[in-house]
Amino acid sequence: MLQAYRALKRNGVIGINERNVNYVGALNKRKLFVTVDDKLVTKRLAESVNIPTPELYGVIANARDMKKLPEMINHPDGFVVKPAQGSQGKGILVVDRPLKGGWRLASGRRIAIDVLKFQINNILSGMYSLGGQSDKALLEYRVKFDDVFGKVSYKGVPDIRVIVLKGIPVFAMLRLPTAESDGKANLHKGGVGVGIDMATGLTQQAMQFDQLIDLHPDTAHPLENIQAPFWDDILSMAARSYDVTGLGYIGVDVVLDQEKGPLLLELNARPGISIQIANRRGMRFVLEKAANLASAKLSTEERVAIAKTL
Amino acid sequence: MTTSLRHASILGLALIIVGFAIFLVKTISLNYPMSPGATAKVWDFEIYIELDGRNEPARIEAYIPASDVDRSLSGEAYYNGSFGLSLETDKAAGNRKAVWTYRYPSNRKVLRYTAQTLGEGEAAPLPLAFRESEPAVTPFEADVIRRQAFIVWSGNLRQRSADDQSFANLAVKAAFEDRASGEQYADEIAALLGDRPNTVGRLSLARRTLQSQGIPARIANGVFLTDARRRVEIRHWLEYHIGGKDFRYFPDGAPNRFFTIWYGEGDLVTASGVDNLEVQVALSARMGAAEDIAQQNANGRIGAMGRVIGFSGLPVTTQLVYKVLMTIPVGITLLVFLRQFIGVKTLGTFMPVLIGIAFRETALVNGILLFSLLVALGLALRFYLERLQLLLVPRLAVVLIFIVMTMAAITILLTGANQSIGLSISLFPMVILTMTIERMSIVWEETSASEAIKQGLGSLVVASIAYLAMSNTQIEYLMYQFPELLLVLMGICVLMGRYTGLRLSEFWRFRDLAK
């Protein structure tokens, strides 16, 4: 026990308590949370500084908007329904393509339009929002993910999570969906997290359910040494996300699209700490170093350059 | 250390220290017992006066214990009959008198004064005003013979003594010595005692002798709290103060505890206009709850504080409510510890504590069984409702109504089977149960069944621990009797709020990084 404690301390592993008090609590002003808690606001802010995001097909805020649903979702390539204020991927529906009068979900299940409407109504009534307050449903472009991660993904969309401290990207992780996670890239549901080397964008060790693994559990493909494309762009997007939100400690979720390149999916003001396991490295020393180097005068390029040296 | 951390640490520690300080004052200097059920001996004290009216204006004066002195006295009551009552206070002498008056009393009348007391011990300090009083130096000025005798007698005492202390010892001893005529100073003593060679007379002589040397002295009258009796003898003793120390001289031997009624050489009861006056002083002992007695009897500002910080002034039903309410912060503090230090996952933040409160009515095992049963049935319904695609609030309402129905059914069935646990289920918080079911089903669907069950079990474990703490009679007693402990709990929570170390569960979570 004491030995484990010393090892974790030496490694600089931080727990939820420390994240909450020293990072989320100290660096993220409460009133700025709205910029990340509402995905519609995040999208608008990102667009204002030319951070690309998935195209918005429509917003449903009430029953009247619901009538426009058929035309909003009239896309043969599918679409995504998500609550504007959802967290941890709750309430997200990924629709693949039309199927026999209904739709086929990414998981392979078929749903009818009234099930879809029910789901949207659940979103509107605040079932997935943080405080249970009423919410909006966003209808978005369904990302056609880049084949580079095709062999290590099982259904669903892989994404890249970058932790940004005061504008400097500090940690990155590739998140891969698995059969167990039902095609979602969330780690607590069984998604695989793969550490990414900040300097090169090459993947390193991997983990699932907080334990180290080498192969993807479904495709049995090795997870190490895959090059994340557009790595500099991704770091740059992550760094700029700080400028538009003003939040000192955020998780930036980026997805890679076949045609459109990296797209900002969402921002998280309370990013999880499992990323330490995926990178086999505690965050404390890196975070402290970045905090010392951070300064308002640095340009985006300078911050990306610092990120690669951490 | 950041300023916010320092601020929180100082506040947390300050709250803990203040809370503990009040707690310690109450337990150590005000004698509040630390555990429930402790008892102490209380004495019921009564002055009972019987008299025959003579059909002429009557006035009965009785000394009653002064309430402003440093001792315990409570529950005073007067039984006046048709008499008028007025109270007179003589601050200088430290006496209080009840004066009963009536214009034309006829036949037999009864007057009573009662009070409760813990009494005084020899360690009780004499009042400051008495210690600093400057007594008259020359007694017996009017009577030449006595004055002469006094000068001879006190001169001799002075000669044989070295200081005030030894002078006082000699004087008190000499005043109670019987000397056959012909012995030295026998005539002087006889002259000084005059027609009062009794205890009061001798005490009076000793008092005058001490006062002539500038030593504060007075005669106290009261009862010894030795045994309970209908007729208790009035005792007299001498109190004096020399060189920063208090002394009491009991001619009849020092008792364990005593109770002073009045000072001076007057009689307990004086009456005019009545016949056949009969006075009785009665004592009876009983055991009382020590905390009540401590609270009632505490004196001065600190004692008043003990009474203000407490619930004894509230109606009994409200007191019972607070007995339960005061334990909730204990459960909450435990919950904070289990979450921040151990890392137990629960459904909802304070839900486990509320479930723990419900367990008070059902007891632990039954509570867990009933809770699990209701949640399981509710979950089943919730999964069925999922298919009907109801809106959120109506769906919650359906689940809540179902919970009430199930609770009613269980009560009726179990009561029919003569099982008393059926009745207690009705006290389960149904809204909390409904929210628990809703939250659990969302976790079930959104994350996994195992996660939902893990959180459900975590909630039950926390609820059980909170229940065990909250239903502990010692903890309940401490929280109720010492509400200042809330400050301690608050301080602990403030400090825990700045805990940034790893949780116990995170040792397991990061086990691969600890290798």
Overall mean confidence score, pLDDT of chain A: 88
- The total number of structural domains of chain B is 3
DSSP summary, beta strand count of chain A: 13
Number of strands of chain B: 12
**How many domains make up the 3D coordinates of chain A?**
2
Q: Most extensive interface, residues per chain?
A: A-B, 40 and 29 residues
Q: What multimeric state do the chains show?
A: heterodimer
Query: Could you say which overall geometry of chain A the principal axes of the C-alpha atoms support?
Result: globular
Low-confidence stretches of chain B: none
CATH topology of the largest domain in chain A: D-amino Acid Aminotransferase, Chain A, domain 1
Q: Determine the structural class of chain A based on helices, strands and strand pairing.
A: alpha+beta
Percent range for β-strand residues of chain A: 15-25%
Q: Report the end-to-end length of chain A measured between terminal Cα atoms.
A: 30 Å
